[in-house]
Amino acid sequence: MIVSTKGRYALRVMIDLSEHQSEKYVPLKEIAARQEISEKYLENILKVLVQNGFLEGLRGKGGGYRLTRSPDQYTVGEILMLTEGSLAPVSCLTPHATPCSRMANCRTYEMWKGLNDLISNYFGNITLADLARPDQAGNDYVI
């Protein structure tokens, strides 16, 4: 499993918004500058996060983005699943995988399933609140 740039950047954006929470919306330019991500690429990531209810966006003066929930209500797992589609280590464990004809005799399936469960449980138990450090807000972490 390799997490793509899209997944890593989505996490960075969500952490950034967790660290810079207020009643106001955070402008795209500010997020892009802090995270050193191009605005154009960031727009694509933010669009997915807004469409799926993770963020709320507002256009125009005073616009930008903000979280729709508190940071402790987002898990790393759900953010990565949204952006990556799957974190499965092998294709037979991906959502909507075509059943494998060798499944009944597969000697490695349980091993891969165990790894998949570990990954899911691990990322499912880390929240944005766990990763955000308001006292050290900014671009001082690398994902």
UniProtKB/TrEMBL annotation:
Keywords: DNA-binding. InterPro entries: Tscrpt_reg_Rrf2, WH-like_DNA-bd_sf, WH_DNA-bd_sf. Pfam families: Rrf2. This is Rrf2 family transcriptional regulator. GO terms for cellular component: cytosol. GO terms for molecular function: DNA binding; DNA-binding transcription factor activity.
